[in-house]
Design a protein that fits this description.
Elements: E1 36-39, H1 46-58, H2 67-70, H3 81-90, E2 96-99, E3 113-118, H4 121-132, H5 137-143, H6 158-167, H7 179-191, E4 198-202, H8 203-208, H9 210-221, H10 230-236, H11 239-244, H12 246-249, H13 260-263, H14 271-275, H15 278-289, H16 294-300
Helix pairs in contact: 4-6
């Protein structure tokens, strides 16, 4: 594997900065025993896993506050760091904190459980393609202190876009949602999975057996759920149910999404692989051999 994707600078020593994220906002954050950090790249199932963790912690199918309020995104520049820290400090329940930063850029603490959710990269990329059209870019620029720019609704078809996504070869730190960045993020977590407090969660596993995966995560987090509550919690974590409650569950505390319900588009497996030609799929798999270890690739591509 390319050395760029296997290096380990240690906890919190490799900052990740983009136009609207800064992992430096973790510096000085005070953890509590039992905190849960959910780390993934965009459209890999972050919100789904946040929902599951919060349902297990609160033991109710109706969360006591909007999801983004209960589980804020600490790295995101759209809200002042002080406001996010204050919101987390005021919480008296077990905390769930979102990040899109790979674990090497987050402080690692043995008291904390780190959940990393992983989706087939092509499916995540296809979802990202659709998601990007739902973001009000000038609203986002306003929130991070940048002037508005002219926007265009024209873009290439999904197949053409995915082919370019596969072939782009930036330093992964500079483009975390392109293929090298996605596999850099997941390779780092994969290498840490034996540490005892890092758990990789498969998006496909959640889709195939939500009840079983929620029970596994409850055991992993040391949460006892009364038997009579399980059906209602599993139902609340279903994709269709989350879409119905998008106004409270979409990760949009400051109004960046044009339509919150569209955030939960449909979440099926195969979106990315089915649109590509056999030659393009072969190119994708060839590229991944240089970007991730074989056991991780086998797990992702089950």
């Amino acid at each position: 594997m390319d050395d760029r994707f296997g290096e380990d600078g240690g906890a919190g020593t490799a900052p990740v900065v983009s136009a609207d994220e800064d992992s430096g906002r973790w510096n000085g954050f005070v953890f509590r025993d039992g905190d849960v950090v959910i780390s993934s790249r965009s459209k890999h199932g972050t919100t789904w896993l946040q929902m599951i963790a919060l349902l297990l912690i609160h033991k109710t199918p109706v969360l006591p506050a909007p999801l983004a309020e209960l589980s804020p995104w600490l790295d995101h520049l759209v809200e002042p760091r002080e406001a996010v820290i204050a919101r987390l400090a005021a919480q008296r329940h077990r905390r769930v904190i979102k990040t899109h930063t790979p674990l090497h850029g987050v402080p690692l603490d043995p008291r904390i459980t780190y959940l990393v959710v992983a989706r087939h990269p092509l499916d995540a990329a296809a979802s990202l393609y659709h998601h990007s059209a739902n973001i009000d870019r000038n609203r986002l620029r306003q929130l991070v202190g940048k002037p508005p720019v002219p926007t265009s609704t024209s873009r290439p078809p999904l197949r053409e876009w995915l082919a370019a996504w596969i072939d782009h070869d930036p330093d992964p730190r500079d483009a975390l949602d392109l293929l090298p960045g996605v596999l850099w993020h997941l390779s780092d977590a994969w290498a840490r999975r034996a540490t005892g407090n890092v758990e990789l969660v498969g998006y496909a596993d959640l889709a195939d057996d939500l009840d079983g995966q929620m029970r596994h995560l409850a055991d992993r987090l040391g949460i006892a759920v009364p038997a009579e509550l399980w059906p209602s919690l599993v139902q609340a974590a279903g994709f269709d149910r989350m879409r119905v409650r998008a106004a409270r569950l979409a990760p949009d505390p400051v109004g960046i999404l044009r339509d919150p319900a569209t955030f939960f588009r449909h979440g099926v497996n195969g979106d990315g692989t089915e649109v590509l030609t056999p030659t393009q799929l072969e190119r994708y798999h060839h590229r991944t051999t240089t970007l991730a270890p074989p056991d991780l690739r086998s797990w992702l591509h089950r």
